[in-house]
Write the structure tokens for this entry.
Amino acid sequence: MIDLSKLAEPGSIEESLLEKIDLKRLPRHIAIIMDGNGRWAKSRHLPRVEGHRAGITSVREAVETAARLELPVITLYAFSVENWKRPRYEIATLMMLLKEYLRKELASLMSNNIRFVPIGRVDGLDPSVVRELRYAEEQTSRNTGLLFQIALNYGGRAEIVDTVNRIMALLREREMSDAVIDESFFADHLYTANVDDPDLLIRTSGEMRVSNFLLWQIAYAEIHVNKVLWPDFRRRHLFEAIVDFQSRDRRFGGVEENDSEMFIEADENHA
Ligand code: FPP
């Protein structure tokens, strides 16, 4: 049972947004492209890494809110395969912040029953980071609440290529090299196997791009872009995204039932 008192103070903006949300139609998986840390820092005449540091508060708030809303899954895009092009100091600071976050946050992940899973080419990260990630993953593996996936050294195309290679190896091993696979078999071998696809994709900082994030999985996701820079992203922005999501007409390539009757009538008129 969702405890609304843990989500909004009486009389707050959050409370008025929460009243607009139908708790029975919440998204099942929210994916977030956290963008704008650098611009946030620049606007304050601070080094870029200060934007990443400030972004951690937003990470904490997004994950905690998702857990309190009892959402099944949240996935955050923290470091892409393309991010290696950034200055060495920025990469090292991001990795340091990630380790710091994991150490500080593990107790809270446990007490909130959150299962933490890194996705991406995780073993390509520095061994000290991999150790912390695997430790948090193992410690939280028996938690049954929110699944918190963090995409690290992640690329959507890389994931598809890794999946193809994984499937080819599997089929070779089973001496089934000429087998024909289908979409569901393919999805079962992605990094996100057994996880429902995101139904809501949020991007901050106003950019209208998907930036190589969960390319396969976002096929039918509703996209919500907010101009707010990631370090300023708070619970109310997540609520706004959910209100927007619930206003969408999700047809998955089909049509509304009433509309399909209209088409039949139109066809009959043509006959
Ligand atoms: C994009 O902003 C943000 C990132 C590449 C990193 C996101 C990382 C964090 C929020 C902090 C670390 C995460 C955890 C979970 C501890 P940008 O730098 O591309 O911003 P810009 O487009 O304004 O330059």
The pocket of farnesyl diphosphate is lined by residues 34-39, 52, 55-56, 59, 78, 83, 94, 97-98, 101, 150, 230 (CB under 6 Å). The first strand starts at residue 29 and ends at 33. The chain is about 45% helix and 15% strand.
